[in-house]
Design a protein that fits this description.
about 300 residues, alpha/beta, Rossmann fold, eight-stranded mixed beta sheet, two-stranded antiparallel ribbon, 10 strands, about 35% helix, globular
């Protein structure tokens, strides 16, 4: 009888997990061409151990408690396509995903200049540091294999993220095997440092868990992960950002330059934190031009290497 009850209880737990509600934004509201459900905690290499239903927050676009991974696909018009593809990982402090402005709006801009992209609805870490990383890496693999069908050159795939998503973009740029790293990264007011003086406690706390040590935080600081094979990076920030201070981006830039890696920094005079994807932002157009210029530079660099 005891064995029967144990098996019954396990079956109920399994059923509850399989019935866990998954949420999504419609293609119409996201502006995406396709939506692909990639995996979830039961099929991915690791689980974030969240068992509650996923949530759409008041914005109707932001998501919380995410435990499944989806790709919103934006295909460039073949007449405009540059052959470049970008994996977008939204911010949200690792407690939510800011899908609209950090994801969908940026993807629509990229599509307008001939760049295909996918916005990754990734699983939040919940103390499992490897989970967002493996979702970002899955996005890179997906863009290289499936993107080739829509004209994306597998060797011209980059990654873009804002705030905690910027951290994830930088993490994927450094913790991914060299042959699978993105060609470049674009990091917008990115979280970088876990050092005591400048740490973003929310992002690092949710990534590493409440029992994290100072040594762990420092070892996951992006400036300490940079090496000779780290890809080039464009860093965008506002000088008056008090949420994630400019010193984060500058620490990453300094580490890149130590290894002679191409990089560019655009520090806008104002805007604080959270302006990515907002067309009403005072410096929205300069921001877009900086991204477009960077993509052109990355393409020229790629073609130069190709023709050697």
């Amino acid at each position: 009888m005891k064995k029967f009850l144990t098996l019954t209880l396990l079956a109920i737990v399994a059923l509850a997990a399989s019935a866990q509600k998954r949420v999504e934004v419609s293609l119409k509201d996201s502006g995406a061409d396709e939506l692909v459900h990639y995996w979830d905690n039961s099929t991915a290499p690791h689980s974030n151990e969240l068992t509650v239903d996923e949530q759409i927050l008041n914005s109707k676009f932001d998501m919380a408690q995410t435990s499944s991974t989806d790709f919103y696909i934006y295909k460039a018009d073949p007449a405009l396509a540059t052959g470049q593809g970008i994996v977008i990982v939204p911010g949200g402090g690792y407690y939510k995903l800011s899908m609209k402005f950090d994801g969908f709006m940026i993807a629509q801009y990229l599509r307008s200049i001939g760049v295909s992209s996918i916005v990754v609805k990734y699983r939040l870490p919940n103390g499992h540091r490897e989970v967002p990383l493996e979702d970002a890496q899955a996005g890179l693999r997906f863009m290289r294999t499936e993107g080739a069908k829509w004209g994306v050159d597998p060797k011209q795939v980059g990654i873009l993220g804002s705030s905690a998503g910027g951290y994830l973009a930088g993490h994927a740029s450094n913790a991914t095997p060299d042959e699978e790293k993105p060609q470049f990264s674009i990091m917008i007011y990115s979280v970088v440092s876990g050092m005591k003086r400048s740490i973003d406690r929310g992002t690092f706390g949710l990534m590493l868990g409440r029992n994290r040590t100072d040594a762990e935080q420092e070892s996951y600081s992006l400036q300490n992960l940079v090496g000779p094979t780290t890809p080039p990076a464009l860093l965008l920030l506002a000088d008056d950002d008090v949420r994630v201070k400019p010193e984060h981006s500058m620490a990453y830039y300094k580490a890149l330059k130590y290894y002679g890696i191409p990089a560019a920094v655009h520090s806008f005079p104002s805007g604080g934190h959270g302006w990515a994807g907002h067309d009403e932002y005072r410096y929205a157009e300069p921001c877009k031009r900086a991204i477009k210029d960077w993509l052109e530079i990355m393409q020229k660099d790629y073609l130069k290497k190709l023709n050697k």
